[in-house]
Amino acid sequence: MRYYIADAFAEEIFKGNPAGVCVCDKALPAELMQKIAFENNFSETAFIVKCGDKYNLRWFTPQFEVDLCGHATLATSFIVLNYVEPTLDEVRFSTVSGEITVRRNGELYEMRFPDRMPEKIEVTSEITEALGVIPKEVYSGRDFFAVLENEEAVRNYSPDYEKLEKLKGYLGIVVTAKGENADFVSRFFMPELKLEDPVTGSAHSSLVPLWGEKL
Length: 215
What we know:
The chain is an alpha+beta fold. It is built from six helices and 14 strands.
């Protein structure tokens, strides 16, 4: 197995969102991958195995496997297209969330991710208590999305992870609002790990269609 660390969504090393990338000669048992991810202690560690003209890709946090991860996919693509198969211009991954394609565009990389429009739900007193703020709207998907009043409210939001854990059944809790210098802004919190993920690509599978409809 070859192991790399790549900083995604960054222009220089030690910035952005780091991910471990494990390029394996054969499929590993899930228990072993979980132990490796726990020892790496990054928010995500990706594991790939070549299968025909594609790669099988799986993602693990230090505690559990996830169904989709943006920054670890970008990190893995960078490793494949620069170190594993540098003659390729496109790499395809087979995942539990379907096929994901990443291709070069000059010095940049374009990822095609699934469209996961979240469902609007009622703002309840339990939700308000868990969030610690009164949201304008809330949405349910793989993650929980709370639309706040403005960008400043998102920047100033201070999570109480013990209270956020009461929002059961979600991988992450996202606070978002219309942006001042961008279409929208967002922050992503993982109550179970008690951390804020710097950049969460997979959440944009829901944020993009949500804000695309609003804007």
